[in-house]
Design a protein that fits this description.
With about 425 residues, this protein is α/β, with parallel strands linked by helices. It folds into two domains: about 1-285, 4-Layer Sandwich (Metallo-beta-lactamase, Chain A), CATH 3.60.15.10; about 310-420, Nonspecific Lipid-transfer Protein, Chain A. The chain contains ten helices and 22 strands. The chain has helices at about 65-70, 90-100, 150-160, 185-210, 230-235, 240-250, 280-305, 310-325, 380-385, 410-420, and strands spanning about 1-5, 10-15, 20, 35, 55, 80-85, 100-105, 110, 120-125, 130-135, 140-145, 165-170, 215, 220-225, 255, 265, 270-275, 335-340, 345-350, 355-360, 370-375, 400-405. An eight-stranded mixed beta sheet has the order 7-6-5-3-2-1-16-17, with no helix packed on it. A seven-stranded mixed beta sheet has the order 8-9-10-11-12-13-15, covered by helices on one side. The chain has a five-stranded mixed beta sheet with strand order 20-19-18-21-22. The model has no long low-confidence stretch (mean pLDDT about 95).
Length: about 425
């Protein structure tokens, strides 16, 4: 088996004459223009061999990337696609529209890809629509976690199926917290460190339960540009941190730090072919900003091409869509203010979940009795209502808005709010 690291969670796996491509995100940003490839890479679909199988772990834009999929040649639409049999109805609808030959795998299901090699799929055991796979034969067993934040119990169970030679694991978590909340500097630094520490601790525990010979941190090659560039320093994604964590814990597991173009071969033993003399992270950040600066500006201009409806009508349409879905949830004591910003103008929508009431309020009527404030650009809402974002409001979860909480921690009620709005269909 030979595994080539393309970028992020995209891997090219060659085994027994078959080629498997995983989670191809190769061009443009994801998450509504917030996340970009960092470090950058030089791969395109044209530079890759035609795979026999494409595996999509889940529906998030950095794994099931619409722009990349649109660049597939027509012949790729007939490639056998492997995906989890999630209960969410939208998943099969989205995948089925893009591909003609899809095999949906259930939890623990094994699919034969050649006479000697199989794929086994694992659906997240905590209820999230995420999945992992292992590719195995008599000579090797490789585990690919992607974003499946499984329980420690599940990791132990998977480890007992067959000795794992190599595990690709996710060491860091993205998301709006804490960098896109309006904390003071000291609190932001504190919360960022806590998130980094907890991410690495979780990853260490999973690695410790999986017990592979080697681990590869992946699905974290990302960066922020433009006015979000400072988030690169707040949401750290340095793969070396996992290596240091394992060494500090005196783990016997060895860490392979792979970058685009590197590959590893597994055949009884493991041989890694990794480029040396890489630049420091600071040098990479500067090169990243310089390399993608103009492309980022162009993308932002394209995002702003939709100028209608005007701010007043846009707010009314968005408010109406929210109101239509308010009865879907039980009453709970929580108030959210969504502020839609356009240049110097602002329209505020107040959602009172206890009273099941949605109304527009002026800036002077905003008070401290609000649990959560969400500030978002009008451009984002226009694109949302035009169905430009396949993940709907969830698209903004990695930098599409800025929030202010009345408390430091995520409450049960705030979580109810996010679950509600992230699962709405805003198509009009």
């Amino acid at each position: 088996m030979r595994i080539t690291y393309i970028t992020y969670a995209c891997l090219l796996i060659e085994v027994n004459g078959k080629i498997i491509l995983t989670d191809p995100w190769l061009k443009g940003p994801s998450w509504g223009g917030s996340l970009w490839h960092f470090p950058t890479h030089n791969y395109t679909i044209k530079k890759l061999p035609k795979p026999d199988y494409i595996f999509f772990s889940h529906g998030h834009d950095d794994h099931f990337h619409e722009e990349t999929i649109r660049s597939f040649p027509a012949s790729w639409k007939k490639i056998k696609v492997l995906a989890a049999n999630f209960k969410e109805k939208w998943w099969k609808e989205v995948v089925g529209k893009k591909f003609q030959n899809v095999k949906y795998l259930n939890h623990n299901e094994i699919f034969k890809i050649s006479n000697s090699t199989n794929i086994q799929l694992f659906i997240n055991d905590r209820g999230d629509p995420d999945s992992s796979i292992r590719i195995f034969n008599k000579k090797s067993n490789v585990f690919f976690q992607t974003d499946n934040l499984m329980s420690e119990k599940e990791a132990k169970r998977i480890a007992n199926l067959q000795k794992i030679d190599l595990a690709f694991v996710i060491p860091f978590l993205t998301g709006v917290f804490p960098g896109f909340y309006t904390w003071n500097t000291n609190d932001l630094i504190k919360l960022s460190k806590q998130k980094l520490d907890s991410s690495l601790e979780y990853c260490y525990k999973i690695c410790n339960h999986l017990k592979p010979k080697y681990v590869v941190p992946y699905a974290c090659d990302l960066g922020y540009l433009g006015d979000k560039f400072h988030i690169n320093l707040i949401h750290s994604h340095n793969k070396i941190d996992l290596k240091k964590k394992l060494e500090k814990k005196k783990s016997k597991i060895k860490t392979l730090i792979m970058s685009s173009g590197d590959n590893v071969k597994i055949n009884k033993s493991i041989k890694a072919f990794i480029k040396k003399n890489r630049k420091s992270d600071n040098e990479k950040l500067i090169a990243f900003a310089n390399d993608k600066g103009n492309l980022y500006k162009q993308y932002q201009l394209n995002e702003k091409k939709i100028i209608e409806p005007n701010l007043n009508n846009l707010t009314k349409k968005f408010q109406k869509k929210l109101a239509e879905n308010l009865d879907e949830i039980k009453e709970f004591n929580f108030k959210t203010l969504i502020s839609i910003n356009e240049n110097e103008k602002k329209k505020n929508i107040l959602i009172d979940f206890k009273k099941k009431n949605i109304k527009t309020i002026s800036n002077k009527n905003i008070n401290s009795n609000i649990n959560l404030k969400v500030n978002i650009e009008s451009t984002k809402i226009r694109n949302l209502l035009q169905k430009k974002y396949p993940m709907n409001f969830l698209t903004f979860h990695n930098g599409g808005y800025v929030c202010e909480r009345s408390t430091m921690k995520l409450t049960i009620n705030e979580n109810k709010y996010w679950n509600w709005i992230n699962n709405l269909d805003f198509f009009i």
